[in-house]
């Protein structure tokens, strides 16, 4: 199993983000809000939104994005053919990164359970 995060696994265009947001299927918690949409591909794709209201400094926003990307890279094989947009709601630093990543994993698990039950 390859654990790459290539260009094909990223949402890059505004239209891709808009189509995920327009479906309005999402779950959230204190740290993140995750939107999901089937993409018809054999792999999952990820888009990230970390605004300046969440973290003023670019290095903090980049740390949040790196952390989410790393989690996605390690777990993308179990996510199926869906597009995910992760929107950060609250900043986190190294000290509470574990808590934030646990919250992110719980959201993805909840979304995949919902998708599986609605498609059955």
From TrEMBL:
Database matches in SUPFAM superfamilies: Ribosomal protein S5 domain 2-like (SSF54211)
Transmembrane segments: none
One GO term (biological process): tRNA 5'-leader removal
Domain of life of the organism encoding this protein: Bacteria
InterPro entries the record matches: Ribosomal_Su5_D2-typ_SF, Ribsml_uS5_D2-typ_fold_subgr, RNase_P, RNase_P_CS
EC number: 3.1.26.5
Recorded GO CC terms: ribonuclease P complex
Record function comment: RNaseP catalyzes the removal of the 5'-leader sequence from pre-tRNA to produce the mature 5'-terminus. It can also cleave other RNA substrates such as 4.5S RNA. The protein component plays an auxiliary but essential role in vivo by binding to the 5'-leader sequence and broadening the substrate specificity of the ribozyme.
Subunit structure: Consists of a catalytic RNA component (M1 or rnpB) and a protein subunit.
Protein name, entry field: Ribonuclease P protein component
This protein's encoding gene: rnpA
């Amino acid at each position: 199993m390859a654990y790459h995060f290539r260009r094909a696994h990223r949402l890059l265009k505004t239209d891709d983000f808009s189509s995920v947001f327009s479906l309005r299927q999402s779950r959230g918690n204190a740290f993140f809000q995750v939107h999901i949409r089937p993409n018809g591909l054999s792999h999952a794709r990820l888009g990230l939104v970390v605004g300046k209201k969440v973290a003023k400094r670019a290095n903090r926003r980049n740390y949040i994005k790196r952390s989410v990307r790393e989690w996605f890279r390690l777990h993308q094989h179990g996510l199926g053919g869906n597009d995910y947009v992760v929107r950060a709601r609250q900043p986190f630093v190294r000290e509470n990164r574990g808590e934030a990543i646990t919250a992110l994993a719980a959201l993805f698990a909840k979304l995949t359970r919902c998708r599986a039950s609605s498609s059955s």
